[in-house]
Every structure is written in C-alpha cells, then in structure tokens.
Amino acid sequence: MEVRLLGPVEVISDDGSRLPLTASMPRTVLAALALRPGETVLADTVIDQIWGENAPRTARATLRSHVMRLRKILPEQRLHTGSGGYRLAVRPEETDLGRLRDLLRQARERTGEDPAGALAMLEQGSVLWRGSPLSGVADSPLLAAEKPRLEELRLAAAEERFALCLSLGHHFTVLDEISEASAAFPLREGFAAQLMQALHAWGRTAEALAVYRQTRRRLIDELGIEPGAELRRVEKLILTGGGKGWEGTGEGGRVPIVGEPRARAGRETGKADVTGPLPEQGTTQDPEGDEREDQEPDTPGDPAEQRDGTAASPVDHVGHRDPTDPERNAPVPLASPARRMRTIWSGLITATAAAIGSALGVMLTLVVGPEPSRSTGAPTAAATPARGAPSCSGFECVGKDPERLGCHVGVWTAAAVEHGQLLVELRYSPTCRAAWSRITGAGVGDVARVEEVRGESQERTLNYDQDTYSPMVEAPYPAAARACAHLKNGQKVCTERGGPSPLPEARTDESHRS
Question: What Gene Ontology molecular function terms does this protein carry (predicted)?
Fold first, then answer.
C-alpha cells in the first residue's frame, strides 16, 4: 500500500489500483495519521487538527464514524485503535513524503563527493510531486499548518536541485525551470540569484543584471528591505566579469558551450550499450573510433529538419565558439553601456521581425492551406500552427500528439538506444514539460511506447512507413520517463531514464528524423 500526500491525498493498493477515497473528511483523517506514519495519534490531537477551536460537541463520535469509513476502505490491519488514539500501520517509505525525505537526505550526504548522483536523487524526488500537497483535505487547522511546510520543503529541494545543475554546468536544461520558479516566487532571493547565474553562464549578462534590479526594486517596494548577501554577491561577481565562485564546469572542467550538448556515456541499454561518449557536433568517427574534424557543423541556415517538423533551433547555434579557442572558458566580459543598449535594441528589432514573420506565416497557412506533409507512421500536424507556441504543459499534454500541440518546438533527445537498424529515442520538451518515444527504422506492427516513472504510459503502433512517435506523458524532468519499442517479434528495447543534457543527434541522416 502507498499513501500519497504530495498532491491529491490518495491511497494506492498493492495491485496499483486507487482506493475509493472521495469524501474530504476521511481524507483529512487519513492525512493526519499518514503525516505521522506508524505512530499513535491521540484522538484529541486529531480533533484539534480537524476542527480546532470550533470542534462540535459530537466531535468524538464524528471522528469514530470517519475512522470506521476509512477502515472499510483500507486493507485489513492497516488502521488500529488503542491507547486513546489511532495508528496508521505504514512505514515512512510507504508514503511519498517519506520517500521524498529519504531521497533528500541521501542527496545531501552525497553532494560533496558525488554531485551527479545527488542530482539524480533530487530529480527522483521532484517527480513525486503531483500538484499542490494535501489536495482534497478539508479546510482545517491541519491544512493551514502542514501545507506551507510541505510547500517550503518543495521550494528548498528545488533550490538544491538548481544549485547542483548549475554546479555541473547544466544551464541549458534548467534555465526555463529557474525562470518559472523565480516568476512564481518573486520575493525568493535564492531563485533570483540562480536565475542570474544561469543567464550569465549563457552570456546573457544584461538580462542577469536586469533580474537583480527588478528583484531589488520589488524587495524595497513590498518589504522595505535591501537584497541579502547572496544576491549581492552574485551581482558583484557578474559586474566584475567573474562568476567562477558559482559557475559549474561540467565534465572535463569547462562550462558547456551553447550548441555543444555533451554526450553521456552508458546512456543506452542492452546489446546496443554505448561505452564511450558520442562525438560532438562538427566531428565524425572513423571505423577505428578516431575523431576527425573534416565536416562542417550545421549552421542556422541548414535546410535539414527533424522528423518532428522543426529545423535545428536557433539557440543551438548562438554563442558557438571554436573548441580550440583557449578563451572559450573565460568569463563573459561586461560590455560598455552603449554596446549593451545596441544589443538590446538589436534583439528587440529581431524579435519584432520574427513575430511579424510568424504571424504572416500563420495567415498564409489559413488562406492557402498547409503544405502537404510527408507520409509517416504518425498523424500529420496540419492542425497546429507552424512554429506556434505550445498549447499545453505538464498533465495537460498527457495522451496528446506533440506536433499538434506545438511541443515539438525546441525538443531534444534525452536518451537513445540502437538495436540493429532500429533507433529508439526519448524526446523531451522542456517547454511543455512532457516526453514521448520516437522509433526510427522500425517495422509495421512495432509499437513506440513512453513510460513515466509513476507507471503512466502512452503508445502508438506503426501502421505503415518505418518511423512513428507516441503520444506524450507528463515529465517535469527528463529523468521522469524512458522510451521503449515493443517489437512485433516480442522483443522490447528501452532507453535509460532521460539525462539532464541533450544528446547529439544519434543519426546524421535527417530524412529519418522525427
């Protein structure tokens, strides 16, 4: 049995089914007991947590009634009465809150010697959140006291995870999340400092300093205080062209350059396991495994498109520097005020022109009609405005087509495995916070399936052609999902859980891409 508190309060039986717990008062009693797993909670304490000073004269009888209802729903020998109170017979690890706390403890113990392992544990913990904690619990003193504590636990864990991502050089994957967190909690200086760090690591120094000014103004206006020491320290490091005190160096002692996603060794499974890193962009590999730099890297003007309908994202080429340049790891210099203003105006003009072009493209599509799509094993995306903004996020995307909802824009491969001619990829959209499986070189009857860590899955069968992709599952982070191919001969080929960095394209033949 599993009791879930980090979202809607619910109970999952051993066979994976959700027990019929619908009324708010039994949920509240269950939450009061599950927050202290295996302990006897006095009846008076439960009454205070449910009603507080407004407890009715019949509170004890009403509580006994709710306990009886719970006992009928829960498996036998799980809810006990005695010693003037009630005990829910579960171990801490049988609650999602208990597992979260254990993962946080292990991550903090490993941070110093194994930051990558600590980050993996924090990512596992982040997947346990299913929304606002204690949802479905009645408005009560229990909810008023415990919900803020759980929310603070969530925010503190997010700050720790962001800090590890930055220290490991994963600015690419975490920037959007930090930006969302900072916008949702504008007075939380930790998120603001981390957003400044991520922006500066990308070379977006002007935006990083703008975050400081906005945060400082808000703190003064709303709280009448100046920013704390950490936020001021980050600003000072940026202004002095530093940042070495907090910038991650990633693998090999360097900050990852935009456009050069690092390969992760051992990401594949089974017979197709890769024992070495995939070659970086701009290199090829001969049969002996020696790299040579006789091929030009893709440029922003490349006509080659991915199978999910998008050209390589412009962000993949911004700031790409010669890997032999000894200055590639030097701190980004702070431009003069005049140059910064020219850069800002240039960006505004470019963004405005792009927006106008996009609008004209949509109008042309509406008048003339969409361009005929190439035949694939997946539905066409004619109903989706090309290059349009994604129209779903998280759970809203579950079971939906990524192309139709615009989630294919900015997507990247988080894990991949090859099996003969078959390529299985976990495609991840940080914007939509969703993932799906893509299979290439498959046969009719093969199935593309994506599996989410909590047991949810989506799949699509290939009816013709050689490639297809599954509907989406919710994936707050790449590690929340893996991609599989179920072959018609009974074999199953799966990737590992997604990694925090994009993989280089596993195949250079773009005609096979999705």
Answer: DNA binding
| CB distance 46 to 141 below 8 Å | no
The list of the chain residues with pLDDT below 50 reads 244-245, 247-354, 357-358, 360-387, 506-514
Are the C-beta atoms of residues 201 and 247 closer than 8 Å to each other? Answer: yes
pLDDT at 478: 84
The CB-side HSE value for 342 (13 A sphere, CA atoms) comes to: 5
Q: How far is 372 from 375, CA to CA, in rounded Å?
A: 9
- Which pLDDT belongs to residue 75? 86
Architecture per CATH, domain 1-166, reads as: Orthogonal Bundle (1.10)
Instruction: Count other Cβ atoms within 10 Å, centred on residue 16.
Output: 8
Q: Is the dihedral of CA 403, 405, 411, 415 positive or negative?
A: negative
Phi-psi map region of 387: left, alpha, beta (phi>0 left; psi -120 to 50 alpha): left
In this prediction the pTM is 0.53
- Pick among 3.20.20.110, 1.10.287.1260, 2.60.40.10, 1.25.40.10: CATH of 169-251: 1.25.40.10
Which pLDDT score is estimated for 16? 82
Alpha-carbon gap, residue 94 to 73, rounded angstroms: 17
Distance, CA of 508 to CA of 514 (rounded, Å):
12
Those residues whose C-beta lies under 8 Å from the C-beta of residue 322, and which sit 6 or more positions away, are 328
Domain ranges of the chain: 1-166, 169-251, 335-371, 389-514
Between CA 384 and CA 246 the distance in angstroms is 41
- Secondary structure of residue 79 in the 3-state scheme: strand
Token pair 């504008």 is found at: 186
**Looking at residue 83, what is its pLDDT?**
82
The CB-based long-range contact list for 10-18 (8 Å cut-off, 24+ gap) reads 10/136, 11/73, 11/74, 13/75, 14/75, 16/455
Q: Look at residue 505 in the predicted model and tell me its pLDDT.
A: 55
